[in-house]
Design a protein that fits this description.
single chain; 328 residues; alpha/beta; Deoxyhypusine Synthase; six-stranded parallel sheet; 6 strands; globular
């Protein structure tokens, strides 16, 4: 071999190994029959039989990962309902936009859901469905023109509900539900807040000022809204004080409800209430930091149990609800 100047170079010695010589005959092994394995064929799914019922469907899910978790979640919710313990359903606006109101209202009417907690966007979609049977504007289309969030009736009537909450010293969820009932809106039976008012079940709304379209309008009273949502925070805390052996579900709220839940839980524990043995569930597209930390993991340390099931609300919520109804 020669270098670039033409000088000779010694040939490469390819006989030397580039790693120490290992004696593989001394490798330690064991029998797989003696090993602990995380998956067993006894946990495998079973094929479907035409004509079988929903209970059979759940029984035939694999007892592995989410297949096992969803059965535990169903059992926890059904067990809490049978023992008259709280099942608190926290939610973001996407749950309404995926058409889940009839499912949740049915569970409220059956006495399964005992408390509904919402972020501020929920009352917007809930009201619009009750008023017109439709909701969810095309934000990308309306943002450039400045028309995003400028629906007249949505703002005027929800801000009227906020004023009513201030005047009557009630929570925001109850005020919206009562307004929908009093106005006899054409699609009120699809409204979660109206169902809460009709059934006398707590529906609480937890607002961050500046996050919702109605906050842009001149009729918005920040002080009255703050007072109403604080009322609802205290109502949620009262529910969580009695959450032992119950269930808290967070669906589609990545920040607001997980933060509110953690603060309300801390408050009631500080006041001496025993809230240690309960189940938490997070349902969403992905595993966000706050729901995993504030709902699934930290609050249940000790005797509690937290579950996170990733998937679409429009599939998971009806599936879990159906499983609970079958179990009851």
């Amino acid at each position: 071999m020669t270098n670039k100047n033409g000088a000779g170079q010694p040939p490469l010695d390819c006989s030397k190994p580039d790693h120490p010589k290992l004696d593989y005959s001394k490798l330690c092994t064991y029998s797989i029959k003696d090993r602990k394995s995380l998956v067993s064929r006894n946990d495998f799914a079973e094929p479907w039989t035409k004509g079988a019922g929903l209970g059979t469907f759940f029984d035939r899910l694999p007892a592995i990962l989410a297949g096992k978790d969803i059965r535990h979640v169903v059992d926890a919710i059904a067990g809490a309902a049978q023992k008259n313990r709280h099942v608190c359903f926290g939610m973001g606006g996407h749950v309404v936009k995926t058409g889940m109101a009839p499912i949740l209202i049915d569970l409220m009417e059956k006495g399964v859901i005992t408390h509904l907690a919402m972020n501020g966007s929920c009352i917007i979609h809930d009201f619009e469905v009750a008023f017109t049977g439709r909701t969810s504007e095309d934000v990308a289309e309306s943002l450039a023109s400045g028309s995003f969030g400028m629906a007249k009736e949505t703002s005027e009537l929800l801000n009227q509900a906020i004023s009513r909450a201030h005047e009557q010293k009630i929570g925001l969820g109850r005020a919206v539900g009562q307004l929908i009932e009093d106005l006899n809106l054409p699609f009120k039976y699809s409204s979660l807040t109206a169902a809460g008012a009709r059934l006398d079940l707590p529906v609480t709304v937890h607002v961050a000022i500046g996050t919702d379209i109605i906050h842009m309008h001149p009729g918005f009273d920040g002080a009255a809204c703050g007072e109403a949502t604080l009322h609802d925070f205290k109502t949620l805390a009262s529910t969580l004080a009695d959450l032992e052996h119950g269930v808290f579900i967070n669906a589609g709220s990545a920040v607001i409800l997980p933060e509110v839940f953690l603060k309300a839980l801390t408050l009631v524990r500080n006041l001496g209430h025993k809230v240690n043995d309960f189940t938490t569930v997070n349902l969403d597209f992905i595993r966000h930091y706050r729901p995993m930390t504030n709902v699934v993991n930290r609050p249940t340390q000790g005797r509690g149990k937290g579950y996170a099931i990733v998937g679409h609300h429009e599939i998971l919520i009806p599936l879990i609800a159906a499983g609970v109804i079958e179990a009851l």
